């Protein structure tokens, strides 16, 4: 059982989108905690509600029901200043490492900017030294990389700059939405290892969003499987993946040849037939899940 306090808690969060006469359930009765020094993997197919959860945590969406807690307290300050203070602590890394960087500016600028906004006590040479430290922390050579523009860098290097920006802000929790899915397979492992090391060394709380069960196995201690805006199963990543209790988790896993095979091993690639089988079976499962009412919590992280 973990003794560290949760940095972020979602309590019974619900969010429905209204598109004309249609209602789409983005999140239904979602509850989970993000703890310092731990990664929770949020796994599910496209449209399962992963990004909705991320946007609620980032306070880009306001939940219809339930509560978002930061360090155990309800968030009451909705002023721009309150939001800025919150985002100092909770940062997001996006799927597309290029889109989140401004092509007109250098790496130095991309790090200088959050430092001036969030670490205003640093001045002059201290800012340059901090930029040097940040680039070293994300395993890039400061002398070479700082003067470069995003288009001079590889996808993996750009994602490292995005990670360095979250460190420049001083974030305690990072929401990483498919952070490696647009990267070449050969550099994915390095970026995930960096996230793992930051989590360990800096005690960050990470939410790792992915549709890829194999990478969840590699980076996370805990896992939650989502479908149709609901959590179907959650718990210790090794326990859930080795002994899934929900049919849908079993179906997702059936598409991966062997969870013990590393995700960058070619043998871990999904077989097209298996993927199609999961999708077809998920369609059949869908009405059952929707009519099931409350979430199915088959395991509890602390349990
Ligand atoms: N702003 C929105 N307006 C209307 N519907 C939305 C909105 N955002 C999400 N949805 C719907 O809510 C459901 C959950 O979407 P969400 O983006 O959270 O899923 P996801 O698991 O993150 O998918 P992906 O992996 O494709 O990003 C989907 O049916 C989606 O179409």
From TrEMBL:
Domain ABC transporter: 8-253
Pfam families assigned to the protein according to its UniProt record, in alphabetical order: ABC_tran, oligo_HPY
GO CC terms in record: plasma membrane
PROSITE patterns cross-referenced by the UniProt entry: ABC_TRANSPORTER_1, ABC_TRANSPORTER_2
Compartments reported by the entry: Cell inner membrane
A single GO molecular function term of this UniProt record: ATP binding
Name of this chain's protein: Dipeptide/oligopeptide/nickel ABC transporter ATP-binding protein
Signal sequence region: none
A biological process term (GO) from this entry: peptide transport
Domain of life: Bacteria
Alphabetized SUPFAM superfamilies for the sequence: P-loop containing nucleoside triphosphate hydrolases (SSF52540)
Keyword Nucleotide-binding: yes
Keyword list, A-Z: ATP-binding, Nucleotide-binding, Plasmid, Transport
Topology of the protein relative to the lipid bilayer: Peripheral membrane protein
Organism in which the protein naturally occurs: Thalassospira marina
